[in-house]
Amino acid sequence: MTDSADITLLLDAAREGDRSALDNVLSRLYTELHSMARRQLAGQHGQTLDATALVHEAYLKLIGRREAKFDDRAHFFAYAASAMRSVVVDYARQRLAQKRGGDLHRVTDLPEDVEGGLRLDEETLGLDTALTKLAAVDQKLAQVVELRYFAGLSELEIAALLERSERSIRRDWQKARMFLLASLKDS
């Protein structure tokens, strides 16, 4: 892991509008972001979206938003996970529109984890819709899902990042999963 104190100082400078500080943060954390993306896209052979493209697209989303301010490392990774989610969902929508004329089928399952990687199909689109509903109800739960699904972090890694206990993250994950499953079944 990268030295948290240096990252915090750079994030402070980036928050003040220093674009070079943000670039420095991204270059220091690039390996971690690329590793997250690679885990999430595992098994997606033959796709035009690879880990490098996902990180680069997420980077463009990160620097393209002037209002993006990162208080600390956890906030940065939460925002990066959200940016990756946006890229993956946009890619899945575009792919489905080209492949099937945009037809979607109902998704009623939510895997416990995504070790095999995200599927760039209706599953991701259904999850995105359900996750948007969850965020409106409880942003903290939605953040745990984003970090788990779209950043590929384990419960232990999320707990360390958010400075919470693994047990509380597990409870949040279970609550979020129940909400998402119910939402997917209702849609």
Give an overview in words.
The chain has helices at residues 4-15, 19-40, 51-64, 73-100, 122-137, 139-150, 155-162, 166-186. The chain is mostly helical. Helix 3 crosses helix 4 (73-100). The radius of gyration is 16 Å and the shape is globular.
Q: What is this structure, in a nutshell?
A:
The chain is mainly α and about 190 residues long.
Search tags:
187 residues, 0% strand
Total domain count: 1
Largest sheet: none
Q: What best-fitting shape do the alpha-carbon axes yield? A: globular
User: With helices defined by DSSP (H or I, 4 residues minimum), what is the helix count?
Assistant: 8
Written as H for each helix and E for each strand, in order along the chain, the element string is HHHHHHHH
Total number of beta strands: 0
Uncertain regions spanning at least 5 consecutive residues: 102-107
**Mean pLDDT over all positions:** 78
Global structural class: mainly alpha
Distance N to C terminus = 40 Å
Which percent range fits the helix content? over 70%
Using the CA coordinates, give the radius of gyration: 16 Å
Question: How much of the residues is beta strand, in percent?
Answer: under 5%
